[in-house]
Amino acid sequence: xxxxxGFKYTKDHxxxxxxxxxxxxxxxxxxxxxxxxxxxxELPEVGAKVKQGQSFGTIESxxxxxxxxxxxxxxxxxxxAALKDKPEVVNANPHESWMVVIKLTNPGExxxxxxxxxxxxxxx
Length: 124
Prior knowledge:
The protein contains 4 helices and 9 strands. The protein has a domain at about 25-105: CATH 2.40.50.100. Helices cover about 20% and strands about 35% of the residues. It is of the alpha+beta class.
């Protein structure tokens, strides 16, 4: 599996695709494979504040329920409402299935995240 180069990754298997002071967040292909078929995603409300490393929601699969961890500190400015009705889209393409958009309060935090090559090494 190739992990998109422009993304940053966490050791908890989330990705963030940064554009300016905002980033779309989702789970990695590795996380999706570990979970199996995703059947439900619980996401926060727009306006919710999140801290780097803090849980912002849960993802349920046929095998397990897992926490979703925020890669950065900030505010939820958008939620992918389509996942409520069709959580299975995460199974087909986890790197295009974003869950939330976070407006970063400290953009410097992102520099501590893994790049694609570092993440690839982590999940070997």
